[in-house]
Amino acid sequence: MADHTLKLKTPPRDRKPSSRQRVLLRGLIVYGAGTFTCDCVFRNLTANGARIAVKQLFQIPERFYLINIRDGIAYDASVVWNRSLDIGVKFQSQLPLNSNEDLTYRRLRKLWLAKAPC
Questions:
Q1: Gap between the Cα atoms of 66 and 88, Å rounded
Q2: Is 26 exposed, middle or buried (0-12, 13-18, 19+ CB in 10 A)?
Q3: Where are the domains of the chain?
Q4: Please, which residues bridge with residue 79 across strands?
């Protein structure tokens, strides 16, 4: 006799445990020790990552710095997914650009200040 018991599917695990905040913030992708930059826009933002959008397709490295122009924060970010002009990133660490004097961060701070409104 066949078993006709109903098997309930377990709900898929939520891949986005942090609540998302929809935003529209200017950003800057920085890689190659600050040699290469690309403007972007934050579309949503969490404590752990973001969805960003770029204006044109380009080869983005697996890991880079992502500067939030408004808040003066650089994120050490890695690519989670890439769909055409939208990119999902995970934050490895967060670096405030208004107080750090390390050489790497000074370069990031200079790039931020060039884009930040007066």
A1: 12
A2: middle
A3: 21-115
A4: 89
Are 30 and 36 in contact by the 8 Å Cβ rule? The answer is yes
Residue 82 sits at φ, ψ, to 5 deg, of -145, 115
Q: Decide: residue 69, CB within 10 A, 0-12 exposed, 13-18 middle, 19+ buried.
A: buried
Q: What is the DSSP string of 38-82?
A: EEEEEEEE-SSEEEEE-SS-----SEEEEEETTTTEEEEEEEEEE
Overall fold of domain 21-115: Thrombin, subunit H (2.40.10)
Q: How is residue 110 written in tokens?
A: 């200079």
CA-derived radius of gyration, the chain: 18
Confidence (pTM): 0.76
Nearest to 73 by CA among 109, 37, 45, 22: 109
| Residue 96: strand pairing partners | 73
Instruction: List, for residues 43-78, the tens digit of each pLDDT value.
Output: 999 999 999 999 998 888 999 999 999 999 999 999
